[in-house]
Amino acid sequence: MGSSSKREGESRDEVSAPAGSQPKWEGPLDTAIMFVDLVDSSVFASVLGLKEYSDYVESFHEVVRVQCEHFFEHYLRGKYERVRDYEYFVIGDELVFFMHTAKPSNDVYLLATLGITLKAAWFASPFNRERVERRSAAAEIAVGINFGTVWARQLESGFKTQGYAINLAKRIESHSRDGHHFRIFLSDTAYNLLHARMRNLLFSDREFATGKGILSRFSVYEIVDAFVDSVERLAPEIAELFEELMGAAIDSNSRDLWIHSAYQVASEKRHGGVTEEAADRCRRVLNYQPENAVALYYLAQFYREQENMELAEISYSQLLRAWPDFGHGHLEFGKCLTEMGKEKEARTAYLRAERLGIEEAAEGRTQGEGLEKTPEQ
């Protein structure tokens, strides 16, 4: 995996920087680091011909190039400048991404949502489309995200970085291949930076992992569910293909529940509400994963839109028993209870949402209404 000239714990800039160039600046740099790797690429290498395997890896390179460019230049409207604010390199079957602005929590959040978006883009690649059409499981990517301080040298070609934080990010990515949900894992440090963004990302409990070159166990958290609009973040030509594949993938492969989450968020946005088809898919997901947050949330929204308030209340209650720290769920439950005339219960729900960082819940608590339609920010 990767180039033999790249040493562990170093960025690709070390290889690309001109020999003997003098740094413009050097020192410690707080950096969000993301590794993305093709899962089971060695297995594919053993069963594919040389040309087929080369096409498989090149397809990944093209997805990364197109999607990263669209994400930063179009979706984020060029707010961040490559090299100054972020940089990424693709080496073989692996992507490494560095982001270092003055807002660490935002850097981690952007990498987490970029990781989700890259999963969607890779799923829509020609390689995976053929597999889905044959009803085979799609090839997957795994993602590891860390935040820490690296030693950086700023050269004409970019930053050359070194440090333990990079090595740890790579080990987290290695561990993420055994994930059960999104296969996107965050370090303890990265996770703790996301408290203000927790409204649309739900995580597993903390677990401990070990890795090569890491002397002690380290803590990680997996993204279990996400109210993130992947379609909105995808390059248009990829978004169209992803939307075409989502329904078939959901109906044929129960493991890919992250696709169901993407489908529900995009469908609600496109139709301005939860459709009967979307609600039916929620029910089917809940048959084998009764605590699925996205399915419970959108089913509750569906019942509420249909003015079946009793069933909406039941679905919200199930959601919040399973995910008591889901602040936006408490906010929407408060709205539901207000519409049912249960003012006392609604105030309690709004108060819980406010304590979990949902600022608009304070207005709902005093006026009986909230401000946002969905958790997507």
Written account of the structure:
This protein starts with 12 loop residues before the first helix and ends in a 10-residue tail after the last helix. Strands 1, 2, 3, 4, 5, 6, 7, 8 and 9 form a nine-stranded mixed beta sheet that branches. Helix 14 runs antiparallel to helix 15 and helix 15 runs antiparallel to helix 16. The protein has 377 residues and is an alpha+beta fold. A hairpin with an 8-residue loop joins strand 8 and strand 9. The protein folds into two domains: 200 residues, Alpha-Beta Plaits; 95 residues, Serine Threonine Protein Phosphatase 5, Tetratricopeptide repeat (Alpha Horseshoe). The relative contact order is 0.10.
Number of domains: 2
- The CATH top-level class label of the largest domain: Alpha Beta
Dominant shape:
globular
How many strand segments? 9
Number of helical segments with 4 or more residues: 16
Classify the secondary structure makeup into a structural class.
alpha+beta
> From the 3D coordinates, which CATH architecture of the largest domain would you assign?
2-Layer Sandwich
Kindly identify the CATH topology of the largest domain: Alpha-Beta Plaits
How much strand?
Answer: 15-25%
CATH homologous superfamily descriptor of the largest domain = Nucleotide cyclase, GGDEF domain
Low-confidence stretches: 1-19, 368-377
Q: What are the secondary-structure elements, in order, as H or E?
A: HEHHEEHHEEHEHEEEHHHHHHHHH
Largest sheet: 9 strands, mixed
Please give the radius of gyration in angstroms.
22 Å
Share of residues in helices? 40-55%
Mean pLDDT: 88
